[in-house]
């Protein structure tokens, strides 16, 4: 199993990637989802907008785009693209640290790959609750 973090022309702000990789393995196990590979790409708004247009036909800025690349729904092979510009803006907007916002988005993408949705109000509330749960576990109440 491989978890990778790549920055495409941006700074990613992540500390202790080894701890985060281990935590993500545990998150997938806790959610009953197999994990074969996971690649996070931290990028600019412009780069993510092009991905959003090309693959999802959405002409809007977003903080994250998640792709399941594998054929077995029980075992994740995923790619997650995260706009660092959106992370920085949202951290300021929601008055949280950059680290907390970046990890929220990372966990959000992982939860999508575990089968969680966020289109309806009910699904979005559950997603937010799961993000909060994993942030609490990761940061230990800090």
TrEMBL record:
Zn(2+) binds at residues 108, 112, 118. Binds 1 zinc ion. Keywords: Cytoplasm, Endonuclease, Hydrolase, Metal-binding, Nuclease, Ribosome biogenesis, rRNA processing, Zinc. Its cofactor is Zn(2+). It is found in: Cytoplasm. GO terms for molecular function: metalloendopeptidase activity; RNA endonuclease activity; zinc ion binding. Its EC number is 3.1.-.-. The keyword Nucleotide-binding does not apply. One of its GO terms (cellular component) is cytoplasm. It is an enzyme of class 3 (hydrolase). Belongs to the endoribonuclease YbeY family. HAMAP family: Endoribonucl_YbeY. Single strand-specific metallo-endoribonuclease involved in late-stage 70S ribosome quality control and in maturation of the 3' terminus of the 16S rRNA. This is Endoribonuclease YbeY. It comes from Chitinophaga polysaccharea.
């Amino acid at each position: 199993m491989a978890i990778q973090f790549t920055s495409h022309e941006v700074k990613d702000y992540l500390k202790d990637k080894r701890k985060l990789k281990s935590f993500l393995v545990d998150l997938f196990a806790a959610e009953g989802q197999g994990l074969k590979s996971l690649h996070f790409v931290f990028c600019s708004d412009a780069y993510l907008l092009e991905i959003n247009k090309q693959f999802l036909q959405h002409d809007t800025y977003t903080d994250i785009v998640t792709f399941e690349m594998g054929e077995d729904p029980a075992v994740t092979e995923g790619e997650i693209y995260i706009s660092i510009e959106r992370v920085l803006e949202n951290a300021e907007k929601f008055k949280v640290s950059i680290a907390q916002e970046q990890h929220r988005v990372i966990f959000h993408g992982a939860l999508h790959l575990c089968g969680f949705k966020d289109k309806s109000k009910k699904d979005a509330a559950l997603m937010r609750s799961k993000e909060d749960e994993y942030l609490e576990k990761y940061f230990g109440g800090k």
